[in-house]
């Protein structure tokens, strides 16, 4: 393997980039190096969407063999574009005409100050390219979950997104794009260096294992939806970086007899789609986890490996009995996910080891799983509390297995041992659930912070157990979101 | 969404829903904001070094590590400022760079100038700073207990002795409530780009609502005259009041760095820095005692309004004045005794934000009325109605606490129309029926009105200028004193001028607002942008029209008064000629084709010492009906349906006005629901704003908007001679969001079984607590 420039497709040509820090963001490259200033910086942390661009990747299952997805350019590092295609706001309109999405935005007064608009248009465009007919209001809301607008109140934007389909359909020609991506796919693995800092993007599992073992201190990077902020907000130097995103084997989702095995490089969007297909109880969390562009960039493996106490996937994964598969060199080991978390921001991953996949048990008859998050806002928010409850109940109504885990309640994602014990082997009724709610107080000592007080977190954690019971016993309307006027 | 059809075919450009003049640029990424401008060769970038102490004396400020950092060109402190180290718009208590004393966590202490934006940010963190910590008050209550003020308390008493009225009232209630502050969260953060010029001059591109004040601030900082500084702004990526005074520190710092280095300097704040350094909406705490009769009619009200102003006065005086001029909302208050505290806290200096104290004052009276209704067990809407100002045709119950007679009251009629169109009564019954059979989820409904005074309280700001150029080829350019922040000002001015000349809107181009072209501008604030600058631009156009009409009349032997400008032509009877042809002929005949216009709002006056007068030219009205659902296990909520009826007078551009109504409403909803500012209450980071980014500060997202949102314009030409009889629309709709807050309180009260003590923002936690579901 030899060093070569970062190569990706942009504006009809393959760009070769070198002489830049591997921590340079896609947004910095666009605005400062290429003077493509249509894409804006609103927050620098992937939370407002003003910087949204669309990334194209090879995908035989997608139309024309190309998958197009919106991501936040402010927290994507330029070398992660290697082998991909980049679309920014300048790429939509022709000299003669605006794109139908843009034209509809103009006609429906979808912009006021206009600063969020390029990002909104890119999110809408990615969605437009994916579908065959106009989206519903809810689908537009989902598409825009990562785009903030402070002026309009969104209604005209939603109207525009739908009205764009009243115009003749304009879609990009994917064949030259696919050809370019094929050409990039034939390149060697990226090994990039600037000022002594290396960026490696191995393209095979073996190469990744070898690289991680050789450089145990290197920063392992997947979606950069968290690590990106270490750079843009904390101004940290990451040292050498090993990127998982180019390893084909890590992108697979395998359905085994009793489990889904989701590779560490699978995006949250794809991972949740697979989970929801097997177990619909994931649906709400799948929609509320961060935002559409974050789910496109971030990986389930990354969320798990990061081990944040407020990561939203782990409570549910732990509750359903997920095992984490780790690899170091040729050694592969597996452990229950809850055992992976040792202390605040400390996991069982050894130097040189990486997360290879997650083994997630399939839905089982008799096991009743629910996972919910509670936060200040429905979309793109971090949980005050994230709850996951999976109770297995036999025909006599006795709890044969209780697996309960919470996020936001402790220094790690953590099982509720006392509450589980209060349920285990008991006949399930309201009194048993009340007892488990009381027992939760022994399981956690949550903190006060800007998201919630400790008292609220504990009360809601208990109430969500009650919600599980009400839901299970079929009691009426339980959620504000279920109500219509 | 319904739209009022234009009924003014005689005025082609005015009354039509023309798109935003920059819309095609916005959607293509071609609208140039300051950070998008091609950089001048040699441009440097600046970043602030900020304090990590809420209140303390700087005992050590070692900047050597900053100076030695890669790419650093200069490091500047207060000592480098040649003139006034101050950006206080009224009181001089607001340093550009802290000088020895820091008064909030995040205050700017020094400025790094470097070759790149990133180098400046990295270097700024390398300073070694030590403080002698001083006591810090974080809340209005703490400051009030210590009598810590940015400005002296204000007392307003009107009508019969309030204490005696309260003593005699059939019913008395006392209560308290509070609402939070609000971060503007303009999508484009604060930015300025300063370019040094010849003969000691400075041109500053500033993302600002107030170019003239930026000009003055920069000049004062240098000890210069105004004519040495020019400030330009083509557009902002949102402002909402946050770029009225807050842009001055940014403009001054960029100008200082440019002057010190002799090179152009751009200062663009990172979002976290922006949210830590710049002021926000004032949060208020209220306590009251109210006396009323069996119908809920208020007889006397004693009210305490305490605001958290932050460390400096900034605009806190006028903001609180407006709160005092709006706590009446649509209601006649016969006997009032109000004490208003302007508390000095060791937090960021709070500032203007859409509504400018109006929403704060209104929050109090709406809460009081809600309390009265819950006490009497009647529909809050009925208590609102019995308290409405009397008809403007009569004399009874029409005088406000600040001595103005309400002469355009349409609140009762507007509310009745909304009660009918929203089916309020039947839905209230349906809500009650639902709640009776739903133990976990509770619904709530509320219908709230608003009245908002239009004009700056300070009379002198109610003036504007404009320069209209007609070029010899018949095209038109307008430069006026208002700034474009997305609200559609440039679009409306363009319509107004095109309308005067009988031209299509695209024949008129809007130039950037620039103090070197139109001087002595007022802030684009107080919803007054179109009212003031529209009239001034119309005035300029009328002067040019008069000359063109006279020239045309002379050429064709007709009376000047008979000449009409329409369809791109000058027309008199059977004679007509294209506008462009008349213009070039007039040019050749040496007729002046350009002119300046001016406007000063008539009829208004204000005595700030007695707090009496007629500060507002007219009032804008509106009302909203909201229905919500609350989950009593978590406190989470959902807004199910909202109906809005709003008064924009005779609309110049209905779709743009509806955009302001919806956007203002959603922004107000965010203030009252999900937007929560949280400062560390103790510890080594006491006073640090932990909600300094969108990851922690949650403005509404698309899915938060009500699934059903019916917005309608109220058919009501302005009784005053405003521009085309329209009404200002920037701020008033924010207060439509009270319907959501009081619907949430309605649902919480249904769950609690009594009046829920809900404060704003009504986060899930606040609601669970108000319901009584949280110890």
TrEMBL record, chain A:
<dbReference type="GO" id="GO:0004854">
    <property type="term" value="F:xanthine dehydrogenase activity"/>
</dbReference>
<dbReference type="InterPro" id="IPR002888">
    <property type="entry name" value="2Fe-2S-bd"/>
</dbReference>
<keyword id="KW-0479">Metal-binding</keyword>
<dbReference type="InterPro" id="IPR005107">
    <property type="entry name" value="CO_DH_flav_C"/>
</dbReference>
<dbReference type="InterPro" id="IPR016166">
    <property type="entry name" value="FAD-bd_PCMH"/>
</dbReference>
<dbReference type="Pfam" id="PF00111">
    <property type="entry name" value="Fer2"/>
</dbReference>
<dbReference type="InterPro" id="IPR002346">
    <property type="entry name" value="Mopterin_DH_FAD-bd"/>
</dbReference>
<protein>
    <submittedName>
        <fullName>Xanthine dehydrogenase small subunit</fullName>
        <ecNumber>1.17.1.4</ecNumber>
    </submittedName>
</protein>
<dbReference type="InterPro" id="IPR036010">
    <property type="entry name" value="2Fe-2S_ferredoxin-like_sf"/>
</dbReference>
<keyword id="KW-0408">Iron</keyword>
<dbReference type="Pfam" id="PF00941">
    <property type="entry name" value="FAD_binding_5"/>
</dbReference>
<keyword id="KW-0274">FAD</keyword>
<dbReference type="InterPro" id="IPR001041">
    <property type="entry name" value="2Fe-2S_ferredoxin-type"/>
</dbReference>
<dbReference type="InterPro" id="IPR014307">
    <property type="entry name" value="Xanthine_DH_ssu"/>
</dbReference>
<keyword id="KW-0285">Flavoprotein</keyword>
<dbReference type="InterPro" id="IPR036884">
    <property type="entry name" value="2Fe-2S-bd_dom_sf"/>
</dbReference>
<dbReference type="InterPro" id="IPR012175">
    <property type="entry name" value="Xanth_DH_ssu_bac"/>
</dbReference>
<dbReference type="Pfam" id="PF01799">
    <property type="entry name" value="Fer2_2"/>
</dbReference>
<dbReference type="InterPro" id="IPR006058">
    <property type="entry name" value="2Fe2S_fd_BS"/>
</dbReference>
<dbReference type="InterPro" id="IPR012675">
    <property type="entry name" value="Beta-grasp_dom_sf"/>
</dbReference>
<dbReference type="InterPro" id="IPR036683">
    <property type="entry name" value="CO_DH_flav_C_dom_sf"/>
</dbReference>
<keyword id="KW-0560">Oxidoreductase</keyword>
From TrEMBL, chain B:
<dbReference type="GO" id="GO:0004854">
    <property type="term" value="F:xanthine dehydrogenase activity"/>
</dbReference>
<keyword id="KW-0560">Oxidoreductase</keyword>
<dbReference type="InterPro" id="IPR008274">
    <property type="entry name" value="AldOxase/xan_DH_MoCoBD1"/>
</dbReference>
<dbReference type="Pfam" id="PF01315">
    <property type="entry name" value="Ald_Xan_dh_C"/>
</dbReference>
<dbReference type="Pfam" id="PF20256">
    <property type="entry name" value="MoCoBD_2"/>
</dbReference>
<dbReference type="InterPro" id="IPR036856">
    <property type="entry name" value="Ald_Oxase/Xan_DH_a/b_sf"/>
</dbReference>
<dbReference type="InterPro" id="IPR014309">
    <property type="entry name" value="Xanthine_DH_Mopterin-bd_su"/>
</dbReference>
<dbReference type="InterPro" id="IPR000674">
    <property type="entry name" value="Ald_Oxase/Xan_DH_a/b"/>
</dbReference>
<dbReference type="InterPro" id="IPR046867">
    <property type="entry name" value="AldOxase/xan_DH_MoCoBD2"/>
</dbReference>
<feature type="domain" description="Aldehyde oxidase/xanthine dehydrogenase a/b hammerhead">
    <location>
        <begin position="28"/>
        <end position="135"/>
    </location>
</feature>
<dbReference type="InterPro" id="IPR016208">
    <property type="entry name" value="Ald_Oxase/xanthine_DH-like"/>
</dbReference>
<dbReference type="Pfam" id="PF02738">
    <property type="entry name" value="MoCoBD_1"/>
</dbReference>
<dbReference type="InterPro" id="IPR037165">
    <property type="entry name" value="AldOxase/xan_DH_Mopterin-bd_sf"/>
</dbReference>
<keyword id="KW-0500">Molybdenum</keyword>
<protein>
    <submittedName>
        <fullName>Xanthine dehydrogenase molybdopterin binding subunit</fullName>
        <ecNumber>1.17.1.4</ecNumber>
    </submittedName>
</protein>
